[in-house]
Design brief:
Blueprint (H helix, E strand, L loop, with lengths): L11 E6 L4 E5 L5 E2 L8 H9 L8 H15 L7 E5 L6 H7 L4 E5 L14 E7 L8 H11 E10 L6 H5 L11 E2 L2 H11 L1 E7 L2 E6 L5
Parallel strand pairs: 4-5, 4-6, 6-7
Antiparallel strand pairs: 1-2, 2-3, 3-8, 7-10, 9-10
Helix pairs in contact: 2-3
C-alpha cells in the first residue's frame, strides 16, 4: 500500500497485525485501512453478502436502521428525494421510509445496479454499513458529493475506530469485507475537505451536511 485510499497521502504507519491481515493508519486523515492484497475478489465479496439475512420485515433489523433513519427524516421534508447507496438485497430502508411517506431510490453494486439512479441528484443519501466495504474511498466520497444537492445530508452508519488498544480486540475488523475504518477524526477531516458540516448522531452514525461547513 503506497497511499491512503481516502486522501491519497503517503504517510502510512503500521496500526495493527492479526493472523489474517495487516492494518495501516494514514497520518493525514487518520483512516485505518488494509492493504489491497487483502481485498476479496468481487465473487468472494458477493458470496459474503449473500450470507446476510437482513430481511426488511425483521423488527430487530428495522430497529438497527432506525438509528439512522429516524433522526434523518426529522431533518428533511417529506417531499425530499433520497438515495440508499448500497441498499443490499432487501432494500429495507427504502421500504421503512415509504411507510412514513418518504421516497428513497435504491442503488447497490450487486443487488440494484441501475446506473440511471446515479445520474440524478438527491436531497439526502443514506450509507448504512457500506462505507467500510469500499476500497476506493476517495472515489466513493467524490461520487456521493456529486450526487448530493446543495444543503443535502449524507447519513453514514459505520462503527468508528476508537484507539489501537480497542482495535486489537474489535470484532468489526474481523469481517473480511471490511477494509476501511473511520474514526470521528477521519469524519472531521472529510467535512473540512469537502466543505461539509459534521454532526455526530450516535456511536456509529454521523451526518454530513453539504455546503454548511463551520470554520
Amino acid at each position: 500500500m503506497d497511499t491512503c485510499p481516502l486522501c491519497h497521502g503517503a504517510d502510512l504507519v503500521a496500526y495493527h497485525q492479526d493472523k489474517k491481515r495487516g492494518y495501516h493508519q494514514c497520518q493525514t486523515c487518520l483512516l485505518v485501512s488494509v492493504p489491497p492484497e487483502f481485498y476479496l475478489s468481487a465473487e468472494a465479496e458477493k458470496a459474503e453478502y449473500d450470507k446476510h439475512e437482513n430481511h426488511p420485515h425483521d423488527l430487530g433489523y428495522q430497529t438497527f436502521l432506525n438509528r439512522t433513519l429516524e433522526p434523518l427524516l426529522v431533518r428533511v421534508n417529506p417531499s425530499a428525494r433520497g438515495l440508499d447507496f448500497g441498499c443490499g438485497e432487501g432494500k429495507a430502508l427504502s421500504l421503512m421510509a415509504k411507510a412514513r411517506g418518504y421516497h428513497i431510490d435504491n442503488y447497490d453494486l450487486y443487488y440494484a445496479n441501475n446506473p440511471k439512479i446515479l445520474a440524478r441528484q438527491y436531497d439526502f443519501i443514506t450509507l448504512t454499513e457500506v462505507i467500510e466495504h469500499v476500497s476506493d474511498a476517495q472515489g466513493l466520497l467524490t461520487q456521493l458529493d456529486r450526487l448530493l444537492k446543495p444543503n443535502g445530508i449524507l447519513a453514514v452508519m459505520t462503527k468508528r475506530v476508537q484507539n489501537q488498544t480497542a482495535f486489537a480486540s474489535w470484532h468489526y475488523k474481523n469481517d473480511p469485507t471490511h477494509i476501511n475504518f473511520y474514526s470521528e477524526a477521519t469524519f472531521g477531516w472529510l467535512a473540512h475537505h469537502y466543505g461539509w458540516r459534521l454532526e455526530i448522531i450516535d456511536k456509529d452514525v454521523v451526518f454530513l451536511h453539504k455546503g454548511t461547513s463551520v470554520n
